[in-house]
Design a protein that fits this description.
This protein is mostly beta strands. The chain is built from ten helices and 34 strands. It has three domains: 2-192, Immunoglobulin-like, CATH 2.60.40.420; 200-391, Cupredoxins -  blue copper proteins (Immunoglobulin-like); 411-595, Immunoglobulin-like (Sandwich). Bound molecules: copper (II) ion (CU).
Amino acid sequence: MADKVDLKRRRLIQAAGVGAASLAAFPAFPIILKRQAGRKVARPPSGTFSPDVEIDLVAGVSRVPILKGQPTSVWRYSAKVTKGDPGAVIPLQNTYLGPILKFKTGQRVRITLKNQLPEQHITHWHGLHSPFEADGHPSYAIRPGQEYVYEFEVKNQAGTNWYHPHTNMLTGSQAYAGLAGLIIVEDKQEQGLPLPRGEFDVPLVIQDRTFNERNQFLYDRRGPIAMLGFLGERILVNGQPDFTMQVASRAYRFRVLNGSNSRLYKLAWSDHSPVTVIATDGALLEKPVTRPYIMIGPGQRVEIWRDFSKPGVGKEITLESLEFEGTMPPGYEQQMRGRRAMGGRGGMGAMGRGMGMMGGRGRMGMGPLAVMANHIPQGSAFTIARFHVTRKAKDNLELPKQLYSRPLYRLEDTVNPDHPRPIAIGTKGRHFTLNGKVFEMLGALDVETIPVNTIQLMEIFHAHGMEHEGEENEKQEEGSMSMQGGMRGMGGMGGMGGMGGMGGGGMMMSMVHPIHLHGPYFQIVKRTPPREGHGLGYDTVKDGFINEGLHDTVLAMPDERITLIKPFTDYKGLFLYHCHNLEHEDAEMMRNFKVV
Ligand SMILES: [Cu+2]
């Protein structure tokens, strides 16, 4: 009963245009849903689409064992092939992750999405270059019981992509509840490369979650969490805690996806081997690159080559996330320094725990401070996955010197080499903005209106302090805490009050944003590091960026400027660009490119 009331309240809040949706926990949702009339169909104008592969994809409610004891109520994708290659769907056992969808370049795919959730939903194919009607724009969200038919040709080259919800203001909570899965694209060039295959080609989906005492997911995105992003207490890999894998003494290909709502990882090997990367986001690199560590933000993928013949049989190698600084607002950074070094536990301080106890029933439903009371601070060091080398391999592969050849975009290919289109990260009141605005469902500014089949030079930069920080700062949401009040509450961030001199509220909210552009991948031209005095902690992350290759998401560190070349080819319509910190996205840090 209480759940229904919560959902109803949430809808009311959404209808009022106030982004305060929250689910304190995911109890057993009502599973029986009345099938509603209405079937939305997305088709190219010709209506003559004939698919090679047809898939039924259900977004529904399920229960899976994650921790010892009670199973966890989750939202989960399931799928089956109804026509064509049965290998297009690879089901996974014992995880809330959806099946892997496996496509080949050039395939025509029809996916019928069935919404068996208790609320509206739409799915986005993150990384795929698909038509507007098949991209999962939130304006196409369907109600419980409805279906949505996607039709698209796989235009991508070989790579690792993923699918997840893109429902307006509900992306974070729906993805957190479990809705996510990998999309692997294969093509001839990639199939001809001597890369690890079969059991040696392993996905690693990294996420963080917080469980209540009954093993249920806890989530909240109100108040300070709308700004910081949700950060959990447990690291899960492929939906499992304490991920451990037995490996042979040979080369593996790990397809790493950061499927977390807002956590960044600084990936490194425990034996201090450099990290060898063969692909970024959805595309293989021209040649492998190595880094001492790799920074991976929410939504991003890297494919890592790791040869376990080096330590040899009997040894254990772990994939670590190393300590880093400077990605969060100054007040949070100040508060968490020191705690990170202690293994990270005990994030929010006495305030959060105090609130948790006040209700006399643990922290259930006690609001955002309680939900994040014991989170692992952003930037803490921890182990992500363990690999035991248990057997001697019969054979091995050598890392190819050359991987994938494709022409690079050049500055002269762009229509605006001297006037990059802006993607300005800013703040207005308690909201992060893009180009001075929050999300408008069908709206686009002039700078966001782009002629189809053009290649654009673009620049992502931080514009904090340049815009009005006026009256909206004073407004407070009913039933919620103010951003700054909340921040102070999160453990007595005494330093926050005295930071006005650094440029007002905007600077106080300066933090990292993983910026995701829908449509074809972009190429990074350059990163301009933060100005002197603005890049606290930049040294702890800067050697982990990969500018080579193609990307759909890029980390914009505080005060950092990223210049990129982005094609807008084939399809007209609305293509989103947004922060992939899902709490930021749901707090409307999202805009449309209108391709005309
Ligand atoms: Cu963001």
